[in-house]
Specification:
about 45% helix, alpha/beta, seven-stranded parallel sheet, about 425 residues, 15 helices
Length: about 425
């Protein structure tokens, strides 16, 4: 690592730490004012954002990036409007900072409560989604944190213009511009410095592919909120409503292929497989989805005249495709389905389609994932759809934050003691 990169990152860290104190004392009105300014600027400058984003997209295409990558990188008017709506939803949310549990008097006479406080400085490392720049900054601002954003080199132009918009919004509300900083170098060594800056950064949130997460897990000294994979399953139970199963499972896979909450493996109870698989798989094949199937599923589909099926391998059950590819397995019962999820799942999001309350309750209790769903598309596992305004990431860890991480996940608690001159004896 060059001395120049190290000094730059240390300076960013110092300024973020200083700004974090101002953010911790900022009023809800100030924070909401900043977010409203940012939302207005995002809408007013949609054409500029798209123009700059096109530079990133053209560069990615020239570098032969795949369709899923380009999809994550592209900022359409719909994506930009969704960012603005996310900002407005965050404005409408209750500010968690300063909230206290009721004071409880102890035998000693002291009164004890817990207060919700910011984490401090959050470092976010992400790859090809420039909308993360707005979403993450907004959540960090509302929760009273300062944030250092290090996007991927492929989105450097988009991230830079969005950072300028955010800092304009901060300044308009009288908040320090250093509360949101974007690392403008594409040098990978900046990440190496960032993940060891324990004196300035309180938590790292990585949003990216396996290689990024694996690197950070091996090298980071700053604590992380993370998820590695999104191998999401849907299990169609024997007591499922067929029309619902077809509609939900179609959406879970094909609404968008690139997000981490898209279904990658479909599990189908053998009792219902001949009724539901032909209709559902025709939809998939008509949409160009490659089907990788086990022996029982192949038998069911070939009996209905299906061709162009691919035999699923052991590796397929472990794979997050982020592409129009789907693994399908026919299972004997809910136990085999849950055993499969336990073995191959990534503890991200898993769903059951059933009208059997007992089976639904078992699935909810026994499937150990951050989001577990009944009769709903896995595509709902998202901060915006959960009413969190946006999300800073999805955590499949069990400590501190789990699932889509919104405002509360970016805060901590401290004990508050109110005394009246008591001393310990």
């Amino acid at each position: 690592m060059s001395k120049e990169i190290q000094e730059m990152m240390q300076d960013i860290g110092k300024r973020a730490r200083s700004a974090s104190r101002a953010m911790a004392r900022a009023s809800s009105e100030q924070k909401n004012q900043a977010l409203l300014h940012i939302a207005n600027l995002v809408r007013l400058r949609t054409s500029e954002i798209q123009k700059v984003n096109q530079v990133d997209v053209d560069r990615a295409k020239a570098n032969s990036q795949d369709a899923a990558f380009i999809d994550r990188l592209t900022m359409t008017p719909k994506v930009i409007e969704t960012m603005a709506l996310g900002l407005e939803q965050i404005i409408s949310l209750e500010d968690p900072i300063g909230k206290m549990t009721a004071l409880k008097k102890q035998a000693s006479g002291i009164e004890l409560a817990q207060m919700r406080v910011p984490l401090g400085v959050i470092g976010i490392i992400y790859e090809s989604r420039p909308n993360v720049t707005i979403d993450a900054a907004a959540l960090c601002l509302k929760s009273g944190n300062a944030v250092i954003l290090r996007g991927g080199s492929e989105a450097i132009d988009s991230n830079t213009v969005l950072a300028q918009i955010i800092q304009e919004g901060l300044a308009a509300a009288g908040l320090p511009k250093d509360a949101v900083q974007v690392v403008t170098t594409t040098d990978r060594s900046a990440v190496g410095e960032m993940i060891t800056m324990t004196q300035y950064i309180d938590v790292i949130v990585p949003r990216g592919g396996k290689s990024l997460i694996a690197r950070l897990m091996a090298e980071a000294r700053v604590p992380m909120i993370k998820h590695l994979d999104g191998i999401c399953h849907t299990y169609i139970d024997a007591d499922a409503d067929l029309a619902m199963a077809v509609r939900v499972c179609d959406n879970a896979k094909t609404q968008r292929y690139a997000p981490c909450n898209a279904m990658e493996t479909l599990l189908v109870n053998k009792a219902i497989a001949p009724k539901v698989l032909p209709e559902l798989c025709k939809i998939y094949q008509d949409k160009g989805v490659e089907l990788r199937v086990d022996t029982l599923t192949r038998s069911t589909l070939e009996a209905s005249g299906f061709k162009n099926l691919v035999d699923a391998t052991e590796e397929d059950w472990h794979t997050e495709y982020l592409a129009p590819i789907l693994s399908i397995k026919t299972v004997a019962d809910i136990d085999e389905a849950m055993n499969h999820i336990e073995r191959y799942g990534s503890k991200h999001t898993d769903a059951i389609i059933t009208n059997n309350k007992m089976q639904a309750d078992r699935f909810l209790r026994e499937v150990d994932s951050a989001s577990v769903m009944v009769n709903a598309s896995t595509r709902f596992a998202d901060g915006f759809k959960y009413g969190l305004g946006a999300e800073i990431g999805i955590s499949n860890d069990k400590l501190h934050a789990r699932g889509p991480v919104g405002l509360d996940g970016l805060t901590s608690l401290k004990y508050v003691v109110m005394g009246h001159g008591e001393i310990r004896t």
